[in-house]
Amino acid sequence: MTKVRVAGAGLLAAATAILAACGTASDAASPPNRTTIPSVPVPAGAAGLTGSPDGSTTKADVFGPACSPMPSRFLAVAETAGLLGTAVTVFAPADAALGDADPEPILRHHVIGKRFDAKGLAVAGSVSSLDGAGDPVKIEGFGENMTIDGAKILCGNVPAGNATIFVIDRVLKPKAGA
Question: Which of 47, 85, 139, 163 has its CA 20 to 30 Å from the CA of residue 10?
């Protein structure tokens, strides 16, 4: 039970780091608006309220649509497999890109046995995945135009524990004949 709680805490920390890092450039450029809103009691049945009746807040309440590029299914499987315990780079397909597919068979093709940041990946040009199948994973472009074997990076260069995570828009497949 303790192991599951620790794994869950690590996954939550990684997810929080990804969401924080996935803000838009306009988020960083615009100064914060600060408005003080007076505290007003609101009836429990008021329209527009979200959350649970017991007053707790869920991840969906906090993050809402910003979670759409989340790779939570993929990261949960990677963490369970013990792949996030060492210094690695993870190309995690967003849940929407993964669809109904089981992430376990393709897991090792999305993990690189060395921790790279975006600049390091661009300099390397290609990296070998943990599955060792076929040709290396090809890195093209720089910055916002970087692709991983043709997959667009939705959010990337996110440090999380021992991993650097790049959320991508599709599942990477080993080359034919690998």
Answer: 139
Under 8 Å between Cβ of 93 and 110: yes
pLDDT tens for residues 47-86? 444 444 555 444 344 333 444 458 888 988 998 998 888 8
Residue 81's contacts (CB-CB under 8 Å, 6 or more residues apart) are 104, 107
Across-strand partners of 164?
Answer: 89, 159
pTM over 0.70: no
Q: How would you classify residue 48: left for phi > 0, otherwise alpha for psi between -120 and 50, otherwise beta?
A: left
- Residue 173, pLDDT score: 87
Residue 87: predicted pLDDT? 94
Distances (CA, A) of 12 to 6, 17, 70, 123, 167: 10, 9, 11, 31, 15
State the DSSP string of 33-100.
P----------TT-TT--S-TTS---HHHHHGGGGTT--HHHHHHHHHTTTTSSSEEEEEE-HHHHTT
- Give the integer Cα–Cα distance in Å for 14 and 72: 9
Looking only at the bridges linking them, the beta strands covering 111-112 and 126-127 are unpaired
CATH architecture of 66-168: Roll (2.30)
